Structure formats: C-alpha cells, structure tokens
Amino acid sequence: xxxxxxxxxxxxxxxxxxxxxxxxxxxxxxxxxxxxxxxxxxxxxxxxxxxxxxxxxxxxxxxxxxxxxxxxxxxxxxxxxxxxxxxxxxxxxxxxxxxxxxxxxxxxxxxxxxxxxxxxxxxxxxxxxxxxxxxxxxxxxxxxxxxxxxxxxxxxxxxxxxxxxxxxxxxxxxxxxxxxxxxxxxxxxxxxxxxxxxxxxxxxxxxxxxxxxxxxxxxxxxxxxxxxxxxxxxxxxxxxxxxxxxxxxxxxxxxxxxxxxxxxxxxxxxxxxxxxxxxxxxxxxxxxxxxxxxxxxxxxxxxxxxxxxxxxxxxxxxxxxxxxxxxxxxxxxxxxxxxxxxxxxxxxxxxxxxxxxxxxxxxxxxxxxxxxxxxxxxxxxxxxxxxxxxxxxxxxxxxxxxxxxxxxxxxxxxxxxxxxxxxxxxxxxxxxxxxxxxxxxxxxxxxxxxxxxxxxxxxxxxxxxxxxxxxxxxxxxxxxxxxxxxxxxxx
Length: 491
Description:
Strand content: 15-25%
Strand order of the largest sheet: 3-6-7-8-9-10-11-12-13-14-15-16-18-17
Protein name: F-box domain-containing protein
InterPro entries: LRR_dom_sf
Radius of gyration: 28 Å
Number of helices: 16
Number of strands: 18
Distance between the termini: 87 Å
Helix content: 25-40%
C-alpha cells in the first residue's frame, strides 16, 4: 500500500494543518515578558522579585508558534514566512536598561521561571535597537520584506529614526497598511513618500491604509527638531494619494502639527478614500476636513472628525468655512456615507432632510451654532432671537426623527445624537441631557417640572468618570423649549 506524504496534500489542506499546528504552538508558548523589581546596588542585600511586564505582542506569538515549522523543509519554511510576517510591529524599547540575567530569547523563559532566587545587573540596551535590526534584516532579505503587508512604528520621533523608518519602508515594497509618526510629514523627501505610498514603480503595491500618529514630545526632543527644516514633501505633485482607501490621523502635538495645508495637499489627489478618521486633533479645522470630504465625496463610507480637547467632552472650535459653503448639504450629498461622527460650526434641518442617504449605526453631530444665524435681525430683542433659535432647533430634531424612521423602514438602524449648547439631544427618545443648574436658579425653582437623573455627563456617554458627583439631568425637549422661551436657558 502506497503511503501518501504530507507534502503531497493540496496546498489548502496542508496550509490548514500547518496553521493549526502554529496556533497550538503559540498557545503553549510564552505569552508574557518578565522583569525584576530593581537593579542590585553595591553592598546591598535587597531581595529581587520577578514581575510580569506585559503580554507578548500577537505577531510575536505567531512568529514563535511557527519557529519549529520553519526548520522542517523549504516548503514549510516558505509557508511560515508568508503567514507569520504579514504584520510587523516595531516599537521603541521602553527604558534604557534591561536585566542581564533575563534571556532575550523568549524560548528560554521557561528556565528563568524555575529560578527561586532571581538576580541580575542593569545593562544598557539601545532603545532604537529593534528599528536598527529591522533596517539590516529587511535590506539583507528582500524576499522576506516582500511578504510584509502591514507595518506599525511606535515611539520613534527623532530625525535619525525617521531616516531609518524610511529605509525600512523602502525595503518592504508590498505594504498595504502603514502606521507611522507624523514627523515623517516634515522630514523626508518627496521620493521617500513616493516609496511609502507604493507608487515608485510598477512592481510596487500601492498603499491602501495610512495612519499618522502625533504626540507631545519632551523638551529635549523638541529642541532637536528646532534645527530641522520642514521639507514639505506633500507639496510635490508627484506625491499622490489616489490609491489610498483609508486615512487616519490621531493625536495632538505642539511640534510642527498637522494642519489644513497638509489636508489640502492630500485632498489634491485623495479621490478614492473610503474611510477618513481625524480624532484628538485640534490643529486641523473644518476647512481641511471638508477638503478631504469633497475630494472623496463619491467613495467615502466612514467619516469621523472628533477634535477632542483635554477636557474630553468640550471640543475645541472646529473652525470656519467660506460663506458659500454649506457643510450640511455637502455631508448629506455623499452617496455612500454610512458612518458619521463630526464636529461642525453650525447645523440645520438640511443635514437630516435627504431621504436617499444610507446612514446607519450611531451618528454623532457636534455643532456650535444653528445655520442661518446671521439672518436674525440685530434689532430684535434677545428673547425673540432665542425664540427663533428654538424654532430652528425643533426643525433639526424633527428632521432627525424623520430620517431615523425612514432608515428603519429600510431595515437600517440609525441612532442620532446631537451635541449642542453644552447639552446632548436624543431625538429618538425626545429627551435632552445637560447641566441645567443655572436654569433652575433663574426660574426660582419653578423649572423643570419633570426630570430624571442622567447617566451622561461632560464626557458624553461615560458620565463623569467618577471624578465628581454628576449634576446632569435629562428633561423633555418641550420642557427645554419652555425654559428657552421663558429666558431661563440660553441656546
């Protein structure tokens, strides 16, 4: 009887077997990194104890799980490389010391755990060692670099590390997703960005997802950048974002922050974006956001613009648009937009009046004013102006309810939440969450006539994070309008 060798199996079956074996190996492998409580000092008998530093990254666990498979034969080695190095995370070493006794090879951790009396000495470890090794490794093994699809860089914010990051990205020519520090926007040539976007040659694979992360640096790190010239690589017309499907920009910084000019340069060619996320960033105004939206209006499915401040709920001013630009009409006219969370200068019923929109899920709109506010006559009394605002607000809430009902008839669940006048409006339930302490005082205790405690707060749906006792309550929309008409609450 002829015996069938395992390598004679079809590729799909063999791949499933090897994948199962790699998962079992990773399950039984090292999942946590270890450390010691302190460095031993001279003439000191302070006992040292072990502690768990943190979990091993998932991509590292996958690599460890396939380590024994790589040594079996060429076919298995190629499979292991292709399936374990698709995602690579390169992180800065946290701290400049390590314990000499602790092995750097995770496979040796088992012996370390058996030691009842751990000891060791502090030795220096290059915080950029992982990045330097990656530069050498991918340059030496281009075939392996060609298998990487997603790459994540974290903690590298110097001129030197930017150069090394570009070197790694030049070696990995088939990347589809990259997460890099925002400093690469300020340091590097147009050719570096052409390689990053995967458009330098026909053999490259165009980048589909780009994430830029900003953070506040220490004073010493900022001084290094004070002598670096901003090369403005995005201003070069050869740098094209036409193949990009997803763009995410996250985090605030004071050092050469991402601004509207960057958005305008990206919008010049980013005509096929499907997802655009801009969060925790206050240096890009609504003008920069709408430049991206208008450029990819026909393809955009997800739009998130949340320029949160350090106080959480209180968002910074989203900026201004030209008088001829109506942001409500522009957003409602995006034919494929499904997921929306945005901060805009003003809103009106037009935002929710287009029945053909395909919005679904949770929709959050944060606005400072109501549209057409300039049409209010300055000669009218303040109470009359407030009455007009309350009327326009009623129209907005009514349009939001109508849109939710229309989507429900299409079997799409849509939940709209409106942040306006330091309150949170829930049109579906016809209630308003907010701190109405001053309104209650102004009414002499006559308002509100009916209210309930609110689970929301200045931080949105998470309440107050347990910091202080919440003064937020929820009232009906009609009750709030009555307070506005009585001049007890101001919109």
